[in-house]
């Protein structure tokens, strides 16, 4: 999701990042040219600047108002304000507000965002007064950003940071209760609640400060003795996940969904075999000469399409039959070649044959909606046992956004997105373009592709918008995609397989996607929810924590939570996506020391164009690439989708074509791309490694060392542009001479599950033999 995230992404220029110490890895994300006049928050004694968005205001609703409202509060407020605007006398010199329709966008459960159409201070004050008159409105809050949108960044990274009157206050262990009370009284603070699954960490609010003054309160608290950190409990929203499935469609090539179903890239496959249900009898898993004697315990009908697990069949069919890739796979033509060699897969099939396939390992997935009842996921779902701190109703993970035991989409959330999804099917071209005229997707293709769009028909633009909406709605289930990459285990011969199919995954929902007509789809999360989600995963015994999200908002509390967890749990492994902006910087939290930061490569062995890179990139894994003209969606990562939920398809006929979903599956399976999916691939390989070490003899440092040492640059390719950039940055001193071009763009290389599993087994055997000698 990422999408996000989201996220989920640290410098505004190419600066080296070194992970020699936990703090040093993150202080490098701070721009050095700061002035005391700028708004900022504190991160390990560094000032992180914030830019106030003066044209946007956030609204917080009273806690009990939602349960009494028949309409969602943001819609009720929108109606009430627009009624009031018509009765209000505005400044006659500026009629923009009087003639505007105010739109309110939901932002999580208790917040909403409103763009103020007038720049006149008097009109802004009028809006503030109107808001305060609403009985269900608690307060108005400032909105910040970390950086401006940039045309160099794919999709234009836009973020909104809401500052509620909430501060995460982390006391030193030595601070007594009386000292804590003294600090709270002296600074006029009230405790909202202690953070769950965290020690000495409280959510507090100021009884005297509001708005931007909350930053000053947090910064003063940070400097006090007895306090480890004081971080504003930011609500972060951005429109770029660490999954790039939501990136704008390339209008210079034919839309995959524009072609009819029978003529799609998948048509030879589906015409001949009648769709997914009838594929099983005709597809046989292709093997290469070096692997003919290897028994694959997880052979399924869709495995040949999962090139990240075995790239040889796909590579052969692409080279020999580029126009009929799926026909080649279905007829098993690749199996007749004697010269096939694996290239860009992760070597997982031979690893399965000699390992426990991740049995006994728990991988926590911190993400968006996780539809754990998917038929390929239900068998790998972790069940929480009898623990002392069990939450009410807890069985299969926890939703820290909605504060409930189910990470799946609920009926109320479904009712929000169903009409949008249905519009993409049921509205005419004119109706669709009129209703979504303010969607940023249309604004982007109009501004970025001015020359091209003049040659497009209305029908083509409408089709692009339809595909965009469908892809965005499908990306609500980002966590379902990630979970499938790690641990999918189909019940029969149909379905997809995860990297560690016998591992268990623990769903932890820490982010949410919202939609508004003017802002489009955006992923949001709150710092406190991330911290509690990490603590929860640790408390439930996770061996690995996957974080396919990122931001440019480093916080001391999240960093400290991860660093402390690493110290207290020497075998716990964190894996994170590095980001999807295609630039030389590593996202947060991937840049934290000993967190495995993962970049993405495509099926040809090139760095995926979206994947971030840099001195401290750890490794790379297949992230998918659906934009290549020759293969289309087949170049993505095929995984479990969540769009198949029944409520989403009410009144919609069977789709006539694909938009990154497998035909006829209604979103049950989907091709995706992004570092969000390279990260869980590594998490899956670590699960395979840990499955061979049930006593957890190997430490995190040893696991990381083995993972890096068994990775390689075999099959990977640098472009001329990448080589030139590396040379330029070395000359300017921004890349150490000890960092090769391969390391700068690929880290230690492409992971190798087979080699990593064998090395773990050999190392454990060696230790056993040495122990017996004594």
TrEMBL record:
All residue ranges annotated as the Peptidase S8/S53 domain in the record: 358-714
Keywords: Hydrolase, Protease, Serine protease, Signal
A Pfam family assignment: Peptidase_S8
GO molecular function: serine-type endopeptidase activity
Keyword Secreted attributed: no
UniProt similarity note: Belongs to the peptidase S8 family.
Name of the protein: Peptidase S8/S53 domain-containing protein
